[in-house]
Structures are given as C-alpha cells and as structure tokens.
Amino acid sequence: MKEIVERYILLLCFSIGIGVSLTLPCVSQSALIEVQSRVDKSEITIGDRITYSLIIDHQQGVRIKTPGEGTHLGEFEIKDYQIHPPEVKGDHLIRRFDFVITSYDTGTFEIPPFPIGFLPTDTSSHYQFIMSEAITIRVNSVVNNPDAVLKDIKPPFFPGMNVWQWVLWGVVAVLIIATIVFLFWYLRKKKTGEPIFKKEVIRPAHEIALEELELLLKSDLLSRKQYKAFYESLSGILRRYLENRFYLPAMEETTTEILDSLREVDISEQDLLLTKAILELSDMVKFAKYIPEPEETTKAIEHTRTVIESTRQRLYIPEESVSVETGTTMTQKPQVSSDGKPQTESQQNLTSNNGNG
Q1: End-to-end CA distance of the chain
Q2: Global pTM?
Q3: 140, 158, 173 — which closes off a domain?
Q4: Is 44 within 8 Å of 72 (Cβ atoms)?
C-alpha cells in the first residue's frame, strides 16, 4: 500500500512539472550554462516576419561559440540578425541573439533545436554543446476564404488598324535609318582599314584567377572578420579556375565531386592534396561557422596561389638545337598529355624523372 501511494505522489509531481513547463519559454540548462529560445508570435500569415531570440545565461569565464549569420533554422528564411551587448548579472553573463525570420510556405513548421557550443572554465580544451528547445510556428495563407471564386482574366484589347499602321511605318522608318547608319559606319571602317568586329581576347584561366586573388587580398573582409564571405570568395576563385582550366563543372560540384573529377585529369598528387585542404577548410567556415586561425588563412591563400601556378597551362615554343654527331638541326617539341593538351610544368618534370629512371 505504501508503494502505491508513493507512485501516485511521483505521478502527481511529474504531471505538475509538465504543466509548469508548458507555461514557460523553452529552456535548456546545465550547471554552467542555460539556453532559452522564444518567438514574439507563434502564428503568422505567409511572408510575415517573426523575431526568434536565443538567450544564453552562462557563468563568467565560460566561453561560448557565437551563433553566426549562416545559422540554419529549418524551413524559415533568415532576413536579419542582431547581437545584443552582454548583460552582467552577478557572476553570470546574459547574451541575446535575435533572428528576424519568415516563411513563404503555409502549414505548421518547427524551428529546430539550436546547438550552442561552450568551453567550461576548467582546463578542458574541448567544446561541449547544449541544445535549445524546438518551437512550433503555424503559417497561414493570405486567402481567408478557401472557397472564394477567382474572376477570369479579361481578354486582350486590340486597338484599331489605324494605330497598327502607324506602328508599322514607324518600324520601317527605324530600319531604314539603322541601315543607313550601319552602311556609313561600315564604309568608314573599311576605308581606314580598322577591323569591323574586334576579336575577343581570351585570357588564360590562371591570369584571371591570380588577378581575382589579388583583389580579394586587397579587400577588408579579413580585417572586418567577415570570414564566411572571404572563404566563399577564395573557394570561388579556385573553383572557377579549375572549371576553366580543366573544363570541369566545379561551380556546381561538391568538394568530393571536384576531387573525384580532378583524379581523372593530369594533376599531381601534391596539387590534389592542396586543393582538398583549401576546399574542406572553406566548407567548414561557410557551413559549420568555423572561425579559422590567422595561420590557417595565410596557408590557404598560399596554397591557392601554389595550385594555380603549378597547374596553369603553359605554351612552349619549339627550340632548335644542332646535333653534334650529324650536324643536323633538331626541333624540340612541347610535351603533351594523353588528351592532346600541353602538360603543366610539374607534370613535365614528373615525366622527365620517370624517363631518366
């Protein structure tokens, strides 16, 4: 009998706890940190904006990973992002992050739990994570009455024939004037000997890539700690170069697909490893909100320049040499790969070493 009474008491306490939790904001907590998530409204019309707030209450000395602009909030699109100054409360700091979000689909959606990484005050160097609670939002349609009948589209309006006649004569007059101007321009070009149509100069892929890299280094993205934008530009430069140099759809492929495609072309293993390191670091910064160290960024820039310089396409001018034995002139032909394209400098050195061996 005593055990039955104890079970009923525990069940009653559990029910009371659930009822209280449903009336409070969504909170996750540990001994060092507490995370609270809330919205200013839980039901909106499609396209309306919601303010989603993350409130982090942690002990002073505990380091946290700041939620960034690349945060993923399920079916909701982030329109704005604001970080509030930290508030001191005893030996705790309270930080608040606001996301202005919206949805362009109707239905019931969920803002998923958001992971907050924190580093305890002890000597541990590994981040721990605490999850916020999920929040359900209902998005309604702008059409209040689903049974409303839409009116049919009005038929097109056709003006009288007199108007069309004026339009036709106007078009004819414009064509005549354009023909006269073109003939005058053509005869003038022909008389002076100038080319009628300028030939488009196709620049080598490595020149374009190195020029874009220099422009990126002159920007202030790193000084403003815009790491995501910087690495998006850096990986974009390398992807466009690989696409133009090796004719690969690198701008549409994932990092793994790019590496698989590069293994099918003439590229050294060292350049392949450098490319892998650059793209994987860029993916971490862009998608995982990883903040790179200055040394990592310096190496990424140097590796990008190295890959471009090492794999760029070079044109070799045949060199004539005189044979000592026969006295005849021999022409040294440029080395080409199996697909008929000139080899890169690193590939020719590798071919030469294999031949000597």
Answers
A1: 91
A2: 0.38
A3: 140
A4: no
Which positions ≥6 away from 123 have C-beta within 8 Å? none
> Per the domain annotation, does 356 fall within a domain?
no
Q: Tell me the pLDDT band of 240, cut-offs 50, 70 and 90.
A: very high
Distance in angstroms (rounded) separating the CA atoms of residues 357 and 353: 6
Residue 109, φ and ψ in degrees, nearest 5? -125, 165
Q: What is the pLDDT of residues 165-223, one digit of tens each?
A: 778 888 999 999 999 998 888 888 778 777 766 666 688 999 999 999 999 999 999 99
116: closest CA among 183, 58, 199?
A: 58
Q: Is 19 a residue whose pLDDT tops 50?
A: no
Q: Which two tokens stand for residue 103?
A: 């949805």
Q: Which two tokens stand for residue 342?
A: 């000139």
| Cβ–Cβ < 8 Å for 86, 64 | no
Residue 318 has pLDDT above 80, yes or no: no
Tell me if 147 is assigned to some domain.
no
Copy the structure tokens of residue 95.
Answer: 């930080």
Q: Which domain holds residue 274?
A: 205-311
- Residues 206 and 309: their CA atoms lie apart, in Å, by 7
What pLDDT score does 148 carry? 61
Instruction: State how many domains the chain has.
Output: 2
